[in-house]
Task: inverse folding
């Protein structure tokens, strides 16, 4: 009888423990990424602005949510952007990848003058107020739907996807009103930046285009602050952008920042998986 009483008490206690489930961490998009893993920041914009790595909400400014490449996406116009207060451990990155989807809003231009897709702000007292950004130069020129002029800025070095007398380096189709995937991958070992459009490396560039600091530089994000998606990084440090700096008129989805150099196969997987 004593054994049966002990067994019964154990089963009763086990049943009680099974009912004490932990509360849900929240119904938000997550990615396969172990603690301290390579994915440092991830905003899926699946109906709200949330960094799924640390469950930190962004501050929406004139932003709505529409059908995206996967689930929902953020949609912003001339006055729209999202401010995230931190990019977590991305500031310690030496190698990195920034990847996301963009879609220009219908027949409208991506933005007047320079339209910022994102901006990684910095607390360093420099005029750009940013350690890294991507902007599109599109004032409504019809040719931009076929070939988009863009500039990627990294630690005071500019990589310009523009038309020159020698070569047209503009990015194909990314502002044609359809969803397109962009990835910017930096390898510290070679100090080179590789650009991917829709899962494939963009190669219509001069041989030395991706060299950072003459192939001898290391990136430094130690003073970086928050990141702004859909606008310049100034908003994340309480500054007013310069008058020529505009916001991206369109949708952005699946915004990821890795502290590693993704391989070509990994970038292709993001594209084919609509991630």
Result:
């Amino acid at each position: 009888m004593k054994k049966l009483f002990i067994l019964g008490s154990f089963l009763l206690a086990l049943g009680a423990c099974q009912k004490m489930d932990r509360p849900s961490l929240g119904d938000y998009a997550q990615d396969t990424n172990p603690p301290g893993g390579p994915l440092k920041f991830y905003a899926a914009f699946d109906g709200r602005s949330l960094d799924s790595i640390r469950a930190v909400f962004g501050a929406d400014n004139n932003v709505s949510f529409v059908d995206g490449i996967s689930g929902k996406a953020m949609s912003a116009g001339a006055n729209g952007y999202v401010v995230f207060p931190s990019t977590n451990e991305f500031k310690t990155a030496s190698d990195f990848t920034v990847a996301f989807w963009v879609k220009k809003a219908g027949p409208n231009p991506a933005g007047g003058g320079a339209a910022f897709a994102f901006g990684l702000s910095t607390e360093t007292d420099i005029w750009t107020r940013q350690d890294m950004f991507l902007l599109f130069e599109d004032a409504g020129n019809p040719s931009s739907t076929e070939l988009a002029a863009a500039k990627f800025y990294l630690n005071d070095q500019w990589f310009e996807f523009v038309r020159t007398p020698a070569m047209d380096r503009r990015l194909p189709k990314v502002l044609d009103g359809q969803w397109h995937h962009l990835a910017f991958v930096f390898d510290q070992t070679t100090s080179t930046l590789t650009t991917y459009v829709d899962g494939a490396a963009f190669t219509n560039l001069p041989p030395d285009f991706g060299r950072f600091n003459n192939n001898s530089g290391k990136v430094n994000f130690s003073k970086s602050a928050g990141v702004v998606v859909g606008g310049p990084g100034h908003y994340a440090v309480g500054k007013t952008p310069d008058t020529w700096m505009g916001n991206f008129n369109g949708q952005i989805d699946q915004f990821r920042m890795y502290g590693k150099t993704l391989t070509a196969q990994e970038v292709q997987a993001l594209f084919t998986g609509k991630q």
